[in-house]
Amino acid sequence: MRKSKFTESQIVAILKEGEAGVPVAEVCRKHGISSPTYYAWKSKYAGATVADLTRMRELEAENARLKRLYADLALENAAIKDVLTKKF
To answer: Which of 1, 9, 37, 83 is at 20 to 30 A from 19, Cα to Cα?
Structure first.
């Protein structure tokens, strides 16, 4: 997936401009984005603060780490069960 040239904090700042009453067309022209991009960001980041987004990114990283850990343990458990059933 293509990485945005805007950081999450910049996206939140752009959305706050739109919420402050500046017309969407003007915000889009000022920052060089399209209207569909603005509305996609609005649906994704609506009401979020920079701190919320940082915390969400940390939780996603921790969740990915825990999923890998679980997968490793499940594979090891299956291997141990396989060895034990073959011995007897």
So the answer is: 1
Does the global pTM surpass 0.70?
no
Q: At what angle do helices 50-87 and 8-19 cross, to 10 degrees?
A: 140
DSSP H or E stretch at residue 15: helix 8-19
Q: In angstroms, rounded to a whole number, what is the distance separating the alpha carbons of residues 67 and 47?
A: 29
| Alpha carbon 60 to chain centroid, angstroms | 7
Specify whether the CB–CB gap between 13 and 45 falls below 8 A: no
Distances, alpha carbon 24 to alpha carbons 1, 29, 47, 64, 69, in Å: 26, 9, 17, 36, 45
Mean pLDDT computed over 25-46? 94
Q: Is 42 exposed, middle or buried (0-12, 13-18, 19+ CB in 10 A)?
A: middle
